[in-house]
Amino acid sequence: MVAVIIMQKLIIDESCDNQRIDKYLKKVLNRAPSSLIYKMLRKKDIKVNGKRVKENYIVHSGDIVEMFLYDDKFAQYSSPKTIYDLPVTFDVVYEDEHILIVNKPTGLLVHEDENESLNTLDHQVLNYLYQKGDYDPSIDRGFIPGPVHRLDRNTSGLVIFGKDLKALQDLNEMMKKRHCVDKTYLTIAKGKVSDATLKGYVKKEANESRVRFVKPDVPGAQYMETIVKAIDAREDCSLVAVTLITGRTHQIRIHMASIDHPIMGDGKYGDFAWNKEIRQRFHLNHQLLHAQSLTFTEPIGSMKYLKGKTFTAELPQQFRKIMNTCFK
Q1: Residue 172 confidence (pLDDT) above 70
Q2: Domain containing 120: what range?
Q3: Which of 48, 50, 139, 194 lies at a C-alpha separation of 20 to 30 Å from 87?
Q4: Which three-class secondary structure state does DSSP give residue 4?
Q5: Would you call 186 helix, strand, or coil by DSSP?
Q6: The pLDDT value given to residue 4
Q7: Do 50 and 103 share a domain, yes or no?
Q8: Residue 6 confidence (pLDDT)
Q9: Model's pTM, two decimal places?
């Protein structure tokens, strides 16, 4: 039987309102290569309300999206998002109809990578929302709930997820502006730490997993600012609260190492002799870093109702045990 090209017709609903047509199509045709989607747009095989559009066209509720695509290809490219039956290992800190804030455990990736494609926080949250009836990939084809920021695998603590498109868009914009949400981390650092505001420029090389300090005029240099407050400073180690003004890769770890107060257990930027001692004493095999609290200081758009609210994540048991031992 010969496949016949027909017009695939989709109607934008409120859950998909106010997003670029290319982003919408990437979610609907979630198994299609991006190159195919942009080729269809260039060849004018995509219409909205009967008119050809470019990739930056913003779709709105009620718009009719039409695609010239083989039936079998449409079926192949538009399989619903897979929901994996995974155990929920995170704690829910706050949830309403728009957002979900969770306490991520140590050792869990936020997003999949080349070594782990299944058991991630992202997939666990989608399963959690599916089981609650808050998300159904067979119905919500143009939107997928997702995190608005990430933590390293071995950093525990708060991660925010947007449960609807408007929330996700506003939260992402808030993260770009930086002053909208204050995020504070808790860690234990080597030596006696003094309060400080740390500034510098860093660059992450494409072929490296490390971030390096560079001069401001180096191409690709990114400004970095970190506020350090000592909660309990001892001669051998200090309990430290760290607030991020910027949000660079490994920011806390590299900034603390730069002032000779590396964080406990950091195998990339830390003090290896101290880490060995700590590993023998506490069986700690990763950096001791916890995203403890966040405050919605200047939320925008649909998130304004959260203004002034602070959310806090409980410390992991191992962190609490080490803290209670070191700061009796």
Answers
A1: yes
A2: 91-176
A3: 139
A4: coil
A5: strand
A6: 47
A7: no
A8: 62
A9: 0.85
114 C-beta neighbours (distance < 10 Å), count: 5
Q: Domain with 24 in it: what CATH number? A: 3.10.290.10
C-alpha gyration radius of the chain: 23
User: Does the CA dihedral 298-304-310-312 come out positive or negative?
Assistant: negative
Same domain, 213 and 302: yes
Together in a domain, 185 and 321: yes
Q: Which pLDDT does position 227 carry in this prediction?
A: 96
What does the alpha-carbon distance between residue 98 and residue 71 come to, in Å, rounded to a whole number?
A: 35
User: How many independent structural domains does the chain possess?
Assistant: 3
**86 belongs to a structural domain:** no
- Report helix angle 34-42 to 21-28, nearest 10: 130
- Which member of 17, 63, 122, 152 is catalytic? 152
Q: In this structure, is residue 83 part of a structural domain?
A: no
Give the pLDDT confidence of 220-239 residue by residue, as tens digits. Answer: 899 999 999 999 999 999 99
In the annotation, is 85 catalytic? no
pLDDT in tens, 142-168: 788 999 998 999 999 999 999 998 999
Given its phi and psi angles, is residue 301 left (phi above 0), alpha (psi -120 to 50 degrees) or beta? left
Residue 132 has pLDDT above 60, yes or no: yes
**DSSP-derived pairing of the beta strands 156-162 and 289-296:** parallel
Q: Does 1 have pLDDT greater than 70? A: no
HSE at residue 149, side-chain half, CA atoms within 13 A, is 27
